[in-house]
Amino acid sequence: MITLQQDAEGFIRMNRHFPESVLISITFADGTVEEIAGGRLNKAYDDALAEYRAQNHLDAKGFSRSPQKKTSPGNKIDFVKVHPGM
């Protein structure tokens, strides 16, 4: 079992997909603990990644199709917003 802790802003650190069938225990900022399947968190990760890419004008693979200029390779996210009862 994987145990994660929600920070004060409502995010957990998640920089990759978890196995679909594994149970992940999340301790929320208010003290409640909930077990969530890996597939459900993977969906939240994918949604957050799609939102990040849309806000930064990146395509579905994380590439910028605008004229090239020097930027950091930040087409990933490390934190996902979660809430009890997902």
Q: How would you characterize the overall build of this protein?
A:
There is one protein chain. With 86 residues, this protein is an alpha+beta fold. It has one domain (2-81). Helix content is 21%, strand content 23%. It contains one helix and five strands; from the N terminus they run ββββαβ. It has a three-stranded mixed sheet. The longest helix is centred in the middle third of the chain and has 18 residues, at 38-55.
Overall average residue pLDDT: 84
Strand order of the largest sheet: 1-3-4
Number of domains: 1
Report the portion of residues in β strands: 15-25%
Main beta-sheet strand count, sense and barrel state = 3 strands, mixed
Radius of gyration: 15 Å
Number of strand segments: 5
SS-based class: alpha+beta
Order of helices and strands: EEEEHE
Give the structure's gist in a few sentences.
This protein is about 20% helix and about 25% strand.
Topology:
Layout: E1 2-5, E2 11-13, E3 23-27, E4 33-37, H1 38-55, E5 79-81
Parallel strand pairs: 1-3
Antiparallel strand pairs: 2-5, 3-4
Short key terms for the protein model shown above:
86 residues, alpha+beta, three-stranded mixed β-sheet, two-stranded antiparallel ribbon, 1 helix, 5 strands
